[in-house]
Design a protein that fits this description.
By secondary structure, the chain is α+β, with helices and mostly antiparallel strands. The protein contains two helices and eight strands, in the order αββββββαββ. 19% of the residues are buried.
Length: 79
């Protein structure tokens, strides 16, 4: 467990800042820590995420482009 924690980085995002963009290559898996995030596909909002929600895994598991965009709705912090 310590090795996992040691390899994690914390990122902060301002409101409306894009965290991942649909169609782009993904190399990072995220876990929301603080704030609210909006998930959209082809420009249409499909979900909101909050603390404890994870995203970004599909691009890593399947070596494919991001299947959705995620942006900060408010000040956010993610691991």
């Amino acid at each position: 467990v310590d090795a996992i924690f040691d390899s994690m980085e914390y990122y902060e995002f301002a409101p409306n800042q894009m965290i991942v963009q649909q169609g782009k290559v993904g190399t990072t898996f995220f876990v929301a820590h603080v704030g609210t995030l909006e998930v959209s596909v082809n420009g249409s909002v499909h979900n909101t995420l909050g603390p404890g929600s994870a995203f970004g895994g599909l691009a890593l598991l399947y070596d494919c482009p991001r299947t959705a965009s995620v942006r900060a709705i408010e000040n956010c912090g993610v691991w």
